[in-house]
Each structure stands twice: as C-alpha cells, then as structure tokens.
Design brief:
By secondary structure, the protein is mainly α. The protein is built from 6 helices and no strands.
Length: 195
C-alpha cells in the first residue's frame, strides 16, 4: 500500500519531465526554422550582391521569393539581410512593418536599422540627386528620434542622429519672427488664459 503514493509521485514527475521535453523540442524546432531563414537571408544577401556586381550593366535584376517567416526574430534577420544586400525597397517595407511590432526589442531594432537603411541609401545616391539624398537623411533622423523617444539611452541611435545632423543641419533661422496665435474670445466674453 505504501508503494502507490511513491509510484504516483514518480508518475507525476515523469509527466512533468515529458511535458518539459516536448516544450523544449518545439522550441528547438522553431529555433531551427529561424536559423534556416537566417541562413537563407544571408545567402540572399550574398547572391544579390553578386548578381548586382556582375550584371549591373546588363540590367539583370535579382528576384527572390520571401521565405515563410514564423518568428519576429527571423523576420528581422531577413530584413537586415535585405538591407545588407542593398535591396532598399524590400528592406524598407520589411523594416517599416517590424517597426510597428508589439515587441519592444524588435520594434527598437527595426527603427534603428530603418534609420541606418535611409542613411546608407542617402550615401549611395551621393551628389547626383541632392534633394532625394536630403529627404533620406531626414527620414533617417526621424527614425533615430523615434528610437530615442522610446529609449533615451540608446547611444548608437544618438551617435547616428548626431552624424545625420552634421550632414544635414536643422534649419534654424534666427531671423524668423515667431508671433503668438491671435487671442480668441470665449462665448461669454472672457479671454482664455495660458496653461
């Protein structure tokens, strides 16, 4: 009779360990899928760079399918590989989507790398299209500011924003006269007070 509580305790412990093993197995599978996507994204970046270098004059365009991205980490890795492979349009779309993520860590990284993407693209454009380059620098500054709004201690974003401001200083014209808005009377005849 004394063996049944012991057997019951071992049975419960065995079920607990089996549940933990199943959970770890599922987590391992998800990690392996994410690693496969990351490897595919890295391969894409290398292939896109090779095709671009080899066929820039002939007009070849690298077209690739987007893999199934079942985790935000894999989607972020793929977006970063697109950015590294200089696929600006696809990287922009992917990073903008990730910058709306409910996860703070993914959203912050995506916004920071969105700023980096804009700045790299502005650098690639160079002096040929000055207006477009300035627009991209402004977009980069906006992305860095969004990062700093969420995390004021994000030093990389702060540094990159400072560099972007050095490239394109903010328009600060001291000759502009700022006029207060006109006073509006309330229906009862009182003038509003300042807060």
């Amino acid at each position: 009779m004394k063996r049944s509580p012991v057997h019951l305790a071992f049975g419960i412990a065995a079920l607990g360990f089996a549940g933990a093993a199943v959970a770890l197995g599922l987590r391992l599978q998800a990690t392996e899928r994410a690693n496969a996507v990351i490897a595919e994204a890295s391969g894409f970046a290398a292939e896109a760079a090779r095709v671009r270098a080899a066929g820039a004059e002939s007009g070849q365009v690298a077209t690739h399918k987007t893999p199934k991205l079942d985790s935000p980490e894999a989607a972020l890795a793929f977006a970063l590989a697109l950015a590294k492979g200089d696929d600006y349009e696809r990287a922009l779309k992917a990073l903008e989507t990730l910058s709306q993520s409910p996860r703070d860590d993914i959203r912050l990284i995506a916004r920071y790398d969105l700023g980096n993407l804009h700045m790299r693209q502005a650098k690639l454009i160079g002096d040929e299209q000055v207006a477009k380059g300035r627009t991209l620098v402004e977009l980069g500054k906006q992305a860095y500011r969004r990062v700093l709004d969420e995390d004021p201690q994000h030093w990389e974003a702060r540094y990159n924003l400072e560099r972007a401001l050095w490239l394109e200083p903010e328009a600060d014209d001291g000759n502009v006269e700022v006029t207060p808005p006109p006073a509006v009377e309330r229906p009862n005849g009182d003038k509003p007070e300042l807060p």
